[in-house]
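Course assignment 3, question 2. Fill in each field.
Student: A.L.
Task: Predict the tertiary structure for the chain below.
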Amino acid sequence: MTLFDLAAWRDCTRRALSRADFSVTAGDYAAADDPDLVQHISARSLPRHGIEARPEEILVTVGAQNALWIASQLLLGPGRRVAFEEPGHPDIHASLTLTGAEVVPVEVDADGLPPERLPERLDAVFVTPSHHSPTAVRMPVERRRRLLELAAERDFLIVEDDYEFEMSYLEPPAPALRSLNGSGRVLYVGSFSKSLFPGLRLGYLVGPPELIREARALILQHPPGQLQRTAATFLALGHYDALIRRMREEYAGRYERMAKALGDGGFRIAGQATFGGTGFWIDGGAGLDADAFADRLRGEGVPIESGAPFFAASDGPCRFFRMAFSSIARERIAEGIDKVTAGLDDARA
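Answer field:
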């Protein structure tokens, strides 16, 4: 949170509570979202991802997870079949499972989800091409085009979670799947929560107008109007762009520091984002129980994330874990990795 401009956010909150704005945000939008926020997404956010979308093609949601849940509810159900990345985000897998559809895990490789591994009969594919969670790898453009070709040939839809798109500070961002698609087979999910703050819970779903109208029926209420207007003001005044610049500059330094410390410590990096990102996917080696290891390190003040929840098809102990640097000062990274190194041999015993 040291990178976040809290004073600017407070100012935007005050502006959103002005008499003119409050008369709008205090009401019930019903079947609509804050027009300022939707306009910014349409005119500024999406074009940076190479996507053109009209306001009627955008639905503001309670974070990306809410958008993904809505997409799963619209597209899936008993008798349907959906492919999902293995490993993959556990919350997405849970949403897919709850629809009653058959969920087919597809093992990823160093370039993300391989299209040739997809089963023949599918109704949908949920994928994180820009920054796979948890390995952080990016799907190459050639593979993205092949996935789109298969979607047209086999008549399935793609739900694209553009996770951490903004954190491309070592290489330019790759084009979104939806920006490459001319057939309307891609539903796009974006979020402001990752780059602003997690508790914001503001995301959006992009799709055909008829699907967006149907999606609104799945929402009990839209995200709070005053929060939407505050975020819209923060974006319009350039604070968001300034924040992203600060984050990219600082994360580049943290990335370099962590990569060096991991190399010095002899860690096996099983996945890392060549474009940037916020963490590393580590193979702890045979005999490691990442759940127990994470619990032990937590007591020493070193938070790592066990990889176990990301593997839907495995019941045994997991040897993989994730180390992130978005919430740790640059000067403390080496100290934390030293603690991980010291405990790793004992944890594998």
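Instructor remarks: The two ends are 37 Å apart (CA to CA). The CA atoms of residues 75 and 108 lie 23 Å apart.
Grade: pending
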